[in-house]
Sequence to fold (68 residues):
Amino acid sequence: MITGNDIAWKSLTKDTSSVSFVFNKTITIGNGNSDFSGTVIQPLNYAEPFYRLSFDLKVVAELLQRIK
Fold:
C-alpha cells in the first residue's frame, strides 16, 4: 500500500525474505520524454523484538479492583 512517500506491506512473517515494488514514470528531459522504470527489491532480515512484556494476571486483577 502506498500512502504519500510511504510504502507498507501487510502480512509479513519472520520467513519473508524480501519485498519489492515496481515503478514506471514518463519524465521530461529538455524537449524530450523518456520512460523511467524499474523494480526495487528490498531484502529483509528478521530480528526478534528488543523487549517482551509479561504480566502477572493476578496482580493486574488486584490493581483493577483497587481502581474501582
